[in-house]
Amino acid sequence: MKVLVQAERFDLGAQNAAFAAGHRDMGAIVTFTGIVRDLPDDPLVAMEIEHYPAMTEKAIAAMAQEATERFNLGDVLVIHRYGRLEPGEMIMMVATAARHRRDAFEAATYLMDYLKSRAPFWKREITAKGAAWVASTDEDEAALSRW
Amino acid sequence: MKVLVQAERFDLGAQNAAFAAGHRDMGAIVTFTGIVRDLPDDPLVAMEIEHYPAMTEKAIAAMAQEATERFNLGDVLVIHRYGRLEPGEMIMMVATAARHRRDAFEAATYLMDYLKSRAPFWKREITAKGAAWVASTDEDEAALSRW
Amino acid sequence: MDVLYFAWVRERIGIAREKVETQAATVSDLVAELRGREERYAAAFEDVSALRVALDQELADFDAALDGVREVAFFPPMTGG
Amino acid sequence: MDVLYFAWVRERIGIAREKVETQAATVSDLVAELRGREERYAAAFEDVSALRVALDQELADFDAALDGVREVAFFPPMTGG
């Protein structure tokens, strides 16, 4: 299991390739990558992500451990950035390795649902008019009830 | 949409990075990678994949088109190999890009369920004792009834 | 029409493709004809529930009509992904 | 104990962390104390249903006891991923 919480960009291709190469005993690898949207007429100038340094890694590692047990994972990787991100930049990624595709998919979905609503990050959208905190959604909270 | 059916290996990292970089307007990228298992005491020497050349790309493109409409995808990539593969080699990958993570996850799961049971590939496992066709499973067939 | 065989269907019949002259109206009729030819065909088509068929590269049912079809392919359930 | 504030809770209160001397038995008791201090605290804690709390870096409920707790953090619902 690897959890990285960092301000720096990460190399999705290299991370995915290294993760897959490290799990030849697993048949199925799933990745999710979250990207700051970059739409033509969107006023978004940047996204700022605040986090709770003493808690973040610990909370993510607990989720990753839970996912590992629940879905029989061979390995899991979570990278999550904080700080100021421009449109089009990657925010985070997860990767899961399992014997069976269903476990790899479910584990990645589970991790995303928990990271959305239980990892101590707070996003703020910066536009020319000012900054606004991103509100959590009922939909994101409801997604957790599935697990 | 891109569909590649090839004997050659593919570069997962480069494919995933290029796919994500090409979709800055999408917030969510999901990939699945299938790997020939490489277990310590497994007698598997190689996996041979036969396919139906005139049908394969057409069938996969139809699945990708259906997934695009059903899950509002911004883009989809499928790479599937045929021929002889050694343990640890990558068999195939899919990548989906969507605005929302749920669509990206569901589309990738949908594509995998269909590729498993509806794309014209037949796997054969080679061991020291001989070769045996991989049987389709009721579980794989049942997975389709979800959609 | 061209008739193609894949995987263990190909192995049992011993060839990957052949030209077949037939008046068969449906896939099932064609299967009955082929089954009557030789033991290796009878072995390949013994249990059609274990087989799939594509007409001109599209999956079809065994009761599908063969009107205008140029290529029929028989194979076991697919194992892609 | 150390009390930390994040996101708009931090903005409303105007500081990211502070030392608080308290005899509060539970998180709710602590919230009541802080709310009584000044308008900016009252504004931050106006609707606790919009808040989350962590005790020593673990998510907790507002009725959780503060015995032995060294760090309390208040923040809005998280928006990670």
Explain how this protein is built:
- The complex is a heterotetramer, with two copies of chain A (147 residues) and two copies of chain C (81 residues).
- With 147 residues, chain A is an alpha+beta fold.
- Chain A has one domain: Aldehyde Oxidoreductase, domain 3, CATH 3.90.1170.40.
- Helices cover 36% and strands 35% of the residues of chain A.
- Chain A contains four helices and eight strands.
- In chain A, the strands form two sheets. In chain A, strands 1-4-6-2 form a four-stranded mixed beta sheet, with helices on both faces. A four-stranded antiparallel beta sheet of chain A has the order 5-3-7-8.
- Chain A is globular, with a radius of gyration of 16 Å.
- The model of chain A has no long low-confidence stretch (mean pLDDT 95).
- In chain C, 27% of the residues lie in helices and 23% in strands.
- The model of chain C has no long low-confidence stretch (mean pLDDT 97).
- With 81 residues, chain C is α+β, with helices and mostly antiparallel strands.
- Chain C has a single domain, classed as Roll (Ubiquitin-like (UB roll)), CATH 3.10.20.30.
- The N and C termini of chain C lie far apart (30 Å).
- Strand 2 of chain A pairs antiparallel with strand 2 of chain B.
